[in-house]
Amino acid sequence: MANLSRIDLRAQIKHLDLAEIPSWLSTALIVILAFLLGGLVILAIGANPIVAYLSLLQAAFGDVNGFAETMVKACPLMLAGLGIAMAYRAKFWNIGAEGQIYAGGILAAVVGIHLAGLPRVFLLPATLLAGVLGGTLWGFIPGLLKARLKVNEVITTLMMNYIIIQLTAYLVTGPMRDTSSGITISPQLDPAAWLPIVIPKTRFHLGILLAIGSAFLMSWLIYKTVLGFQVRAVGEQSRTARFAGIPVERTIIWTMIISGALAGLAGGIEVSGVQHRLVEAFSPGYGYLAIAVALLANLEPIGVILSSILFAALLNGADAMQRAAAVPIPVIYVIEGIVILFIAIRILRRKSN
Amino acid sequence: MAVQSIPVIKMVGITKHFGKVIANDDVTFELFPGEIHGLLGENGAGKTTLMNILYGLHQPDQGDIFVHGQSASIKSPHDAIQIGIGMVHQHFMQVPTQKVVDNVILGLKSAGKMLLNRDAARKRLMDISENYSLKVDPDAYVWQLSIGDRQRVEIIKALYRDIRVLILDEPTSVLTPKEIEELFHTVRKLVESGLSVIFITHHLEEALSITDQITVLRNGKVVGTIPTGSTDKRECASMMVGREVLFRLKREDGGGYEKHEVLRVENLSAVNDRDTPALRGISFNVFSGEIVGIAGVDGNGQSELVQILTGLRSISGGRFWVEGKEMTRASPKTILQHGVGHIPENPDDGLIAEFNLVDNVMLNMHDVPPYSQRGLLDKNKMVEKARELIQAYDVRTPNEKVKARTLSGGNKQKLIVAREISRNPRLLIAAHPTRGVDIGAEEYIRNLLLQKRHEGMAILLISTKLDEILSLSDRILVMERGRFMGEMSREMANIEKIGLLMAGSEA
Fold it and tell me: Which residues in chain A are contacts of B336 at CB distance < 8 A?
């Protein structure tokens, strides 16, 4: 009897496949494995992984301020991650969330600075909408190029990142520069354009709740609307979607409008809620990390909430880990790298099935 | 003919599981020298699994294999070839960017020499080609070859390795009628020279016309082995599906409605993906309550015609109308909504593999009431409809939440047909509606088409199966190189006449 069940178990293990287990479980396994392997790296450099991870956790979630700072970092990752997830649902390989963040940040800053004096009820929404608009525009262009002229979106979205990042640098050193400041930044936005703080004495701003709300909105869009149905169909099998009369090109354009809008909102919120001005290089690569955020979450909007908080906690806790356990910050990049490696393996496994 | 002696191959009590599915259940199979042995069964009956075991691709869970009376352990295709067993799969194992001769000798060691002896290989290849009427140019690149040529290369590859038993897995499914004749000729020559051939098929006529013995498999089990001379189509069919199959389809002429022209096509021309003419100015029409069958060898413009009529391909000349409304440059959506249903020639174009059955049923209905209102999907209505179709059209599935890829070929096609017919189109374009489905589903789909015709639907049927064209169509058009070679009513049609037209000769 015991022997029989062992054979059975072995057969089970033999048939166990990463692609066949539920995706939330594979995500959890990826994260756990990454931390275990990261722990080995920490051991190898002579530090104590348990101390390191505890100090990381403590810094990221241990007190109100730590939690707030984690959420401040999670916010742009979450919104840009949602944008990426949207695009990837339609198999549009948008690498341009970073650029869409900058485009949103620029327009939000322009509105928040130049429409100063308007009451908050108008100015704050206008600032955020300007962010949405900037990202939309920056997402729409590669979407249109792909849909109408079949231009490869990986190249266009990536190149448009450089354009807008350089444009930001130009603006804050030239036309939009705060001449009273010694460094290259724009003047502050009108305080009426600032996102209100939700948790007093922290930087936890209203934008974080907007981001979480956006995730639920997007989940609804993907699963409950005609557009969401068409995005999923185009992403799964565009040829079949075309046969069924789904307007593939139009769906791609709409997908990129929404994808850009979400990343643009991330930029707008970063300017309005955190920086309060346009700063050169205000996004330290959120738009690229958002790709890992979206993929780890299996492109599920609700999952993006969790995975963005995970990556933000790593960013936020890294300093503390270095101080408390003498573990250098790059160990965090190792963990991130391992996560991304496992994600890639998961994608390849699915493809080969 | 079969000679009673020691079997070349004897497989005893072969059992093979894939996960929970039992693919072969205690199968016993014997092949005698000089015999053409047909392995007959529906899709998924276990034919290919059994032969993959013989060829060393799978290991049986239980059972033994004897070759010339000796117990044999076949762990890999290499082992199989060593003891004289070769197999030609449905999907060819070739390197398209290499020449035929290089493909044939790929993986062989030229005994003791460092350098390839291509001239010797070429000569040997030509000898084989000559002896067994396997015409092929040894210096052509594989990517330049037609499917028929590539199949011949695959057979030559096996013969080059001195095999004594050749397994052919559904060899005719990719061939034109003329190529099938050539293949049969080759197979007969092979057995004349002492080889034995196992011929896997689900096509009754082929099994009956080429084999000496037929073994029928159903659900992984052997139903029986019978000499071909003492059986007939009806007996084989009932062994395959486990019940009597109606070969005579009921045809009734519809009544109670006025016949009118539903599809009108004038002087249509178009190019194919290689920019060569695919359609050269064709005109025809389809009336309500009528099935117009387009017969022809695959690749003579049928695919392009269907793509144009469904808005998926642009045209270079001509016009067409559906119910009097011009649709010449309309989008797929416009055409669909104007009452055109489409059963695509490739079922993969009809279903999204990773979508569940509900979403697949809704592919071309999700954006219209009652399934959505103002852009919002109504899940309950969607599920309700999917359940209704699954039940009404006998789609075999545990429930409507499974992904489409889990369905068998026949059930996939039934789901597509159900979806298209349930939209009640005025014109149904059915491209190869029974391709790759088992006999049960084939009969079901054909009867359904006849019933819809009876109810007044106009149906354009494109098929390479002549029995299908003949048993369903009211009028038959034969397409060859982008033109109609002739039109005939069902009363005037017969296989010989259509065959001639398909081969491009005027009847």
Answer: 244-245
Q: Which two tokens stand for residue A170?
A: 């130009």
Nearest-CA distance from B16 to chain A in Å? 14
3-state DSSP assignment of residue B430 = strand
Spatial contact of B421 and B428, defined as CB atoms under 8 Å apart:
yes
Chain A contact present for B353, CB below 8 A: yes
Please, what is the angle between helix A286-296 and helix A97-114, to 10°?
130
**Nearest in space to B8 (alpha carbons), one of B37, B29, B27, B33:** B33
| Mutation site, B306, B310, B334, B349, interface A, largest A CB count within 10 A | B349
pTM score of the predicted model: 0.73
CATH: 2.40.30.60, 3.40.50.300, 3.30.70.141, 3.90.1150.10. Which one for B261-502? 3.40.50.300
**Residue range(s) of every CATH 3.40.50.300 domain in chain B:** 9-241, 261-502
pLDDT of residue A121: 94
Write out the two tokens for B179. Answer: 């190529």
- Judged by CB atoms closer than 8 Å, whether chains meet at B353 and A237 is answered as yes
How confident is the model at residue B253, as a pLDDT?
61
pLDDT at residue A1 in the model: 41
Residue A14 at interface with chain B, using a CB cutoff of 8 Å? no
ipTM: 0.86
| The pLDDT value given to residue B507 | 46
Of B333, B348, B375, the CB nearest to A245: B333
Highest-confidence segment of A48-57, A133-142, B405-414, B489-498:
A133-142
Query: Quick one: B502 exposed, middle or buried, by C-beta within 10 A (0-12, 13-18, 19+)?
Result: buried
φ and ψ of A140, to 5 deg: -65, -40
A236 and B348 within 8 Å at the Cβ level: the answer is: no
Residue B93 near residue B100, CB atoms below 8 Å: no
> Hey, which residues 111-150 in chain A have their CB within 8 Å of chain B?
none
CB A53, CB A318: distance < 8 Å:
no
Yes or no, beta carbons of B352 and A233 under 8 Å apart:
yes
Residue B170 or B185, more confident: B185
Residue listed under structure tokens 């009897």: A1
What's the rounded Cα separation, in Å, for the pair A234 and B162? 50
What is the residue extent of each domain of chain A? Answer: 78-312
The arithmetic mean of pLDDT across residues B455-464, rounded, is: 92
List the CATH code of the domain at B9-241.
3.40.50.300
Q: Which amino acid is at B438?
A: D
Within 8 A of A233 by CB-CB distance, chain B residues are: 352, 355, 359, 363
Q: Is the peptide bond before B370 cis (omega within 30 degrees of 0)?
A: yes
Nearest to A73 by CA among A245, A207, A227, A166: A207
List the single residue in A with minimal CA-CA distance to B379: A224
Please give the residue of chain A at the shortest CA–CA distance from B358.
A229
Unique residue bearing structure tokens 């990129």? A256
Contact B332 A242 (CB under 8 A): yes
* List of residues 6+ apart from B301 with CB closer than 8 A: B272, B278, B279, B280, B282, B479, B481, B482, B483
Interface of A with B in 233-292 (CB under 8 A): 233, 236-237, 239-247
On whether the CB atoms of residues B212 and B227 are closer than 8 A, the answer is yes
Task: List the one residue out of A274, A313, A309, A302 whose CA is nearest residue A101.
Answer: A274
Sign, Cα dihedral of B461, B466, B467, B471: positive
Contact B335, B393 (CB under 8 A): no
Of all residues in chain B, the one with the smallest CA distance to A351 is B354
The residue-averaged pLDDT of B188-203 equals 90
Q: How far is A306 from chain B (nearest CA, A)?
A: 25
Which helix (H) or strand (E) segment holds residue A207: the answer is helix A206-224
Nearest to A96 by CA among A175, A152, A38: A152
